[in-house]
Amino acid sequence: MNLPNLLTALRIALVPVFGMLWLGGRHAAALVVFALAGLTDLLDGLAARLLDQRTRLGSFLDPAADKFMLLVAFLVAASVGAVPWWLAGLVIGRDLALAAGFAAWTFLVHRTFDPRRWHPTRIGKYATFYQLLTIGLALVARAADARALAPWVAALVLLAAATTVVSWVQYFVRGVIAFRAPGPRPAGGAPS
Fold this sequence. Notes:
Structural class: mainly alpha
Largest sheet: none
Radius of gyration: 17 Å
Order of helices and strands: HHHHHH
Number of helices: 6
Helix content: over 70%
Number of strands: 0
Shape: globular
């Protein structure tokens, strides 16, 4: 296993630790683990590019690690009241729908598994950014017991929801186009 994949594996291992810490009310420790997981996400991509160590395994593990973090983060955040349940449902629902669409396209239509053919769209990246920023600020607000951050968290909740819906629609349209296109399917918009 190369360095980028090891960093991704570390991020996956940090996710349940993060979730247990936050659920247990250890906000500052959860924030440190969340930041460390974010750092490994940055470093694995950087290492893959600089060391030219992009692998098929890494192209699957990296987005899976991101989705695992978002799943746990939103479930815990909603369960402790840091974000509304409807946002958690929206984020998780979008990711489940995208995963189902990707699986259907891969195994029923294209019949080969190659996650490198799918790339996140710009709005998908924005949605992921605002989702993570919402979780991060909600956690900072809990760790610092800063009620003054509540309006900022509420604004980020709306921004994360809006970008999540727009990206969901965009990926849905791309999926419909990919399913209708004759012959080999072009790359275009994996879940982000």
